Amino acid sequence: MKVKKYTASTMPEAMKVVRSELGQSAVILNSREQKTRGFLGLFRKKYIEVFAAIDPNPRDHHKDKRSIRFETNKPQRTEVKQPSDHVLKELELLKQQLSTTQDHQTLLPGPIQAIITGLRDQDVDQNVLNQLSPYLLEKYYGEQLKSEEQLKGVTKQFFLQRLEHIETDQPKMCESKYVYLFGPTGVGKTTTIAKLAASQSISEGKKVAFITLDTYRIAAIDQLKTYAKILNVPIEVAYSKEDLKKAKEKFYQYDVIFIDSAGRNYRKDEYIEQIQDYVDFKANDEVYCVLSLTSKQKDLEDIYSRFSKLNINRVIFTKIDETTQFGPIYNLWNKYKFKMSYLTNGQNVPDDIQDASPELIVDMLVGDKE
Question: Per CATH, which fold does 178-366 belong to?
Answer without folding.
Answer: Rossmann fold (3.40.50)
